[in-house]
Design a protein that fits this description.
Elements (H helix, E strand, L loop, with lengths): L3 E2 L2 E2 L23 H4 L3 H21 L52 E4 L2 E4 L1 E10 L9 H14 L2 E11 L10 H13 L4 E4 L5 H11 L8 H21 L10 H10 L2 H23 L5 E6 L5 H9 L16 E6 L5 E6 L9 H6 L1 H8 L3 E7 L5 H14 L7 E6 L7 H10 L3 E2 L8 H14 L2 E8 L3 H10 L1 E7 L3 E8 L1 H6 L1 H8 L3
Parallel strand pairs: 5-6, 5-7, 8-10, 8-11, 11-12, 12-13
Antiparallel strand pairs: 1-2, 2-7, 3-4, 9-10, 14-16, 15-16
Helix pairs in contact: 6-7, 6-8, 8-11
Bound molecules: guanosine-5'-triphosphate and magnesium ion.
The site of magnesium ion has 6 residues, from α9.
């Protein structure tokens, strides 16, 4: 056994050659996501396997003569795919911690390569350990729920959860965090189940990680949790920027695989700089966008609440919406046109999660900065979730930490179709002045758009401006994004009285002065 990553320990078993790429790491904070989703080990494997897969595709299209080792008889689909009837890949549901191994399930290395979102991942076997310290404040989620969520995250990260345990502690053991009896119990589970990754539901010190690895029987290497967290995000951002900004960012134009190779060669300090540069360019991109004076509405909410589904439904966008945590990693913005012709920009964001630590908030900054520049936040709640209230509280807490609590907010209860009694939920929502929708079947979306419009109006600025006829486009924009109360046609232009978004009001400033000085 070897390696730890965040509070994740990777014991090694007889590994295929690719697994030697594993890089261990340690946690910087109590991070769920980086600890598992962004395992450099998994990620480097993915890159490596994707390369092989890419080569295999080239073989099929005749681009390469040489067949990759071991791939001759299987071609593109040399690794098993799990498909649903509709042909889409469906990851195994792992929220059931007592999942039994199917008799026909083989542990051969090939069987454990799975295709996820078009990428191939090696499914490591994971064992979850939940820890609850008595007297720890602020946690409204119980330990069982925390473990459920951790299992879902592990699934999202491409791990196969083979077991779990938890312990309530009066205070953590300084050497191993959990008690020695628990350590022994986990050790036997690790060996009995051939576990490769042990994930702790809490922050462990470097010393505790070392001791635990030793106790479970491996040598520990500790480093680079931060990098593991940033790498995929960085890559994704590049891809995102490439699509949106048209090739001006450093590294753009590089194929994904080249970016991947370059990142693999890069050290963590350099990566930090790169992330910073991505942030700067995103900001430039946002500034350009802000010069188009359309109000920005951001969808925020707990992960899996249905934000991307709502964006897709309203705009016809094709943002990945999946029953997995953290399906969305970087924001996407689309224009929404309402029936009355008014427009706003709708931004999807990365979902929040309980115990989102300040450090993670900082790391998410690149994406969450979008939120701070919105005219309106739409808090999407999965009202069918048994812990909907706790999730709402967790989101509000993060919004406070992000210092955006002052931005007007509209709360929307989503997935009403999934509740036991949609009618009852709807009337409850009405009483509380909350909009009730189903992003999946479109129920309540008209009411939702009207509510956005009303809320946006509250954030509009009243202006009176003289718009010369040669600036006719501007008048169109005022009609499109603002609310026009009165227009008066003069000899050289139009006097317009309207409520407009702040950026447009700024743009109109010279014309407002014109009004003041004599029209
Ligand atoms: N029944 C039902 N399912 C929904 C509804 N809206 C979304 N879903 C499902 O909920 C799951 C999560 O939806 P996403 O849109 O990916 O959620 P998200 O908030 O973007 O999640 P993250 O990107 O992880 O933060 C998907 O399986 C959707 O199909 C709804 O109104 N009703
Ligand atoms: Mg999403």
């Amino acid at each position: 056994m070897r390696a730890c990553f965040g509070s994740v320990l990777h014991p090694t078993t007889a590994s295929p050659p690719l697994r030697s790429l594993h890089h261990p790491a340690r946690p910087l904070s109590r991070l769920y996501v980086p600890r598992i989703k962004i395992s450099l080990a998994t990620w480097t494997n993915q890159i490596q396997r994707n390369r092989v897969l890419k080569e295999a595709v080239e073989v099929e299209t005749g681009a390469l003569e040489e067949v990759p080792e071991g791939g001759s008889e299987i071609g593109v689909n040399r690794f098993p795919l799990e498909t649903k009837e509709d042909g889409l890949y469906s990851p195994p549901k792992v929220s059931n911690r007592k999942k039994k191994k199917r008799p026909e399930e083989s542990d051969s290395e090939y069987d454990r390569y799975k295709l996820r979102n078009g990428k191939e991942v090696f499914e490591e076997k994971a064992y979850l350990v939940g820890v609850e310290c008595k007297g720890s404040t602020g946690d409204t989620f119980g330990i069982e729920e925390s473990l459920e969520e951790l299992a879902q995250l592990a699934d999202t990260a491409g791990l196969r959860v083979v077991g779990s345990t938890y312990q309530k502690l009066a205070s953590p053991n300084p050497r191993t965090y959990i008690g020695s009896g628990k350590v022994a119990e986990i050790k036997s589970a690790v060996h009995a189940l051939d576990v490769e990754t042990v994930i702790f539901d809490d922050e462990l010190s470097a010393g505790q990680l070392r001791n635990l690895e030793k106790a479970f029987g491996g040598d520990v290497r500790v480093s680079l949790a931060q990098m593991e967290y940033q790498l995929p995000r960085l890559t994704k951002m590049w891809a995102h920027l490439e699509r949106q900004a048209g090739g001006k960012v450093k590294g753009m134009g590089e194929k994904q695989i080249e970016v991947d190779k370059r990142i693999l060669r890069t050290q963590i300090g350099e990566l930090r700089k790169e992330l910073e540069s991505v942030r700067k360019h995103r900001k430039q991109y946002r500034n350009r966008r802000l010069s188009v004076p359309v109000p920005v509405v951001s969808l925020v909410g707990y992960t899996n609440a249905g934000k991307s589904t709502l964006l897709n439904r309203l705009t016809g966008a094709e943002v990945l919406a999946e029953d997995q945590l953290f399906a969305t990693l970087d924001p996407t913005t689309r224009r929404v046109q309402m029936k009355n012709g008014n427009e706003f920009l709708l931004t999807d964001t990365v979902g929040f999660i309980q115990k989102l630590p300040t450090m993670l908030v900082a790391a998410f900054r690149a994406t969450l900065e979008e939120i701070s520049e919105s005219s309106l936040l739409v808090h999407v709640v999965d009202i069918s979730h048994p812990l909907a209230q706790q999730q709402m509280d967790a989101v509000d807490k993060v919004l406070q930490e992000l210092d955006v609590a002052s931005i007007p907010k509209l709360v929307v209860w989503n997935k009403v179709d999934k509740t036991d009694d949609p009618q009852r939920v709807k009337s409850q929502a009405e009483k509380q002045g909350v909009i009730c929708i189903s992003a999946i079947n479109g129920d309540g979306l008209e009411q939702f758009c009207n509510a956005i419009q009303t809320k946006l109006k509250d954030s509009l600025v009243p202006v009176e401006a003289f718009v010369p006829y040669d600036k006719g486009m501007l008048l169109n924009t005022i009609h499109q994004v603002g609310m026009v109360e009165e227009t008066e046609y003069m000899e050289n232009g139009t006097v317009v009285r309207a409520h407009v978004p702040l950026p447009l009001a700024r743009l109109l400033t010279p014309m407002r002065q014109h009004v003041a000085s004599g029209c």
